[in-house]
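Quick note —
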Amino acid sequence: MPSIENDIYINAPINICFDLARNVEAHIETSKKTKERAISGVTVGLMENGDTVTWEAIHFGVKQKLTAKIIEMERPYKFTDVMVKGAFHSFTHTHEFIESGAGTIMKDTFSYKAPFGIFGKLADTLFLKKYMRKFIINRAKELKRIAEKSNGATE
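Predicted structure written out below.
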């Protein structure tokens, strides 16, 4: 199962980073390029353990829906969401937060299995992994920007 990892240092307290990462409006703000919006489940505010959200977004020029559920939460250090319905065969996204000096290291681990068997594996090799890595890195950079702005930090 392919896995993507990304670590980013955020000059903001762990609680701010943790709450932003599970905030529906912040998710929408950090994924403007794919026009994501929450259409069912938790559609505003903070997601909690056991909550689901269905996202609608445009990926590869196609409008898609994906439902994710938070299956684990250790406030303010970690939460994990999994896809329960959507374009992937499966995925697990673990969000970890580690206090570091005056700030926080946010670590994303995204493990997934592409759909469509051998064709999915080929798509993964050709473009899917690169696309998902870029999506995760860009979201992390945007969360950093929002967290540091709300914390009064300068970039």
